[in-house]
């Protein structure tokens, strides 16, 4: 019985070794179709070099946006940068009204919130809502979610406000 077990294990080892050899030879003589050979030169038919504009066009086609992309050589009118920060000086009696999405930071002077409705302005620094007439703290990021809300110099003050503004605004 012991000899029989040795014969079976020897045969199993030989079969396993032959199978490994066959798989190895198959891989060696039949490389995958999509692999580039080490002798391929960039820019040949086997390994083409493409431009960024071509890649962009193919991406746009794949995303369903068509194939037209703007030509970078053609100048376009510069867009107004919505992230630009403007420094605005506000005199007593003036109101700085923010457009929807505008952000203000009071840098100097005493300011109060101006709004014509119940809702106010979001103080993103403290995480609270500031309503009409409430003091706008210095160096706090204030967000104006709708048109028609703003800040003004606190009544009785003679000094101007200096405000950093990002987004649309008007001075009244």
Structure write-up:
The protein has 172 residues and is an alpha+beta fold. The chain is elongated. The strands form two sheets. It has a six-stranded antiparallel β-sheet with strand order 1-10-3-8-5-6, with no helix packed on it. The chain has a five-stranded antiparallel β-sheet with strand order 7-4-9-2-11, with no helix packed on it. 23% of the residues lie in helices and 27% in strands. It has helices at residues 2-29, 52-63, and strands spanning 85-90, 95-98, 102-108, 111-114, 121-123, 128-130, 135-136, 141-144, 149-153, 161-166, 169-171. A hairpin with a 4-residue loop joins strand 5 and strand 6 (128-130). It has two helices and eleven strands; from the N terminus they run H-H-E-E-E-E-E-E-E-E-E-E-E.
Could you tell me the radius of gyration in angstroms? 36 Å
N- and C-termini, Cα separation: 106 Å
Total helical elements: 2
Please give the largest β-sheet.
6 strands, antiparallel
């Amino acid at each position: 019985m012991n000899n029989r077990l040795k014969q079976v294990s020897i045969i199993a080892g030989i079969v396993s070794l032959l199978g490994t050899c066959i798989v190895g030879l198959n891989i060696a003589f039949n490389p995958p179709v999509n692999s580039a050979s080490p002798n391929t030169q960039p820019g040949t038919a086997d390994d083409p070099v493409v431009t960024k504009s071509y890649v962009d066009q193919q991406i746009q086609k794949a995303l369903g946006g068509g194939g037209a992309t703007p030509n970078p050589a053609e100048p376009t009118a510069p867009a107004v940068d919505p992230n630009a920060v403007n420094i605005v000086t506000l005199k007593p009696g003036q109101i700085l009204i923010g457009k929807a999405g505008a952000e203000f930071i009071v840098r100097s002077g005493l300011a109060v919130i101006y709004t014509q409705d119940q809702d106010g302005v979001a103080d993103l620094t403290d995480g609270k809502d500031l309503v009409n007439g409430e003091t706008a703290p210095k160096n706090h990021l204030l967000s104006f979610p709708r048109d028609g809300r703003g800040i003004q110099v606190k009544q009785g003050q003679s000094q101007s406000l200096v405000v950093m503004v990002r987004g649309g605004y008007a001075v009244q």
